[in-house]
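Record type: monomer structure entry
Structure origin: computed from sequence
Chain ID: A
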Amino acid sequence: MSRNDCEEEKMEQLSRKFRKELIQLLHSKGTGHPGGSLSCVELLTTLYYKFLRVDPKCPDREGRDRLILSKGHAAPILYCILAEKGFFPVEELETFRQAGSRLQGHPCSHKTPGIECSSGPLGLGLGAGLGMALAEKLKKSDARIFVVMGDGEIQEGAVWEAASAAVKYRLDHLTAVLDFNGVQLDGTLEEILPPGDLVKRWEAVGWNVISCDGHSIPEIMKSVELAKQCRQKPSIIIAKTVKGRGVSFMEGRHQWHGKVINDEDFKRAMQELDMERGEQSAGE
């Protein structure tokens, strides 16, 4: 097995692990956002375990890469990954969204190690990433900035203002990752505000556009490598995903944007995730 194959297998295993941890966490606390967290599992896992140069022992190290989770409601899956990476104890996940906890419902950079930008109000992440990228460019740093956005989020005008500015300043070390699951808080994008041809829209602004399957780790890895090779313009990876990925009754349903996972839902979801692992093992 090649090194790449070993890395891919490790990240596949971690993605399955994180999905189960997420469902367990949201069920036990009776709060959180399952749908949009499940859709970006592979995206965040691949970025943290393959590309991001970060140090849990020194999270504020100068010259580090940065990831901004602009779709801040997916915080619980980010917390699972940060805990696994060692930014804080895994046991602290049990304090999720509790009074006084560092792990609030949306990320807070003032409290939580590994969080680069507080988010919650949608549309602010790309602008923050733009500022960070400009600062790194002035310092002649090779640090890369990644901004993970939701597709409903790009209905915000601030996103397109930041996108235009990033082109003006030729920020080729800035990469946006669009979690394109086609579903937002209270319906599909087509029902609420059709996005049109996103490839053409981003190309028209001046971005380097890369499309991939957002649940395929090899495709995500290839897409990030292509973004790193691009010069003189920022890149966006439009990653086609499924909201609620991995749990059949959540997939593609806006009701699971922030719905509470009850006992019956939990049992069924865990059975499906366990079955998926069994099927994977049988085929290996």
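Annotation 1: The first strand starts at residue 66 and ends at 69.
Annotation 2: The beta strands are 66-69, 145-150, 174-180, 183-184, 187-188, 208-213, 235-240.
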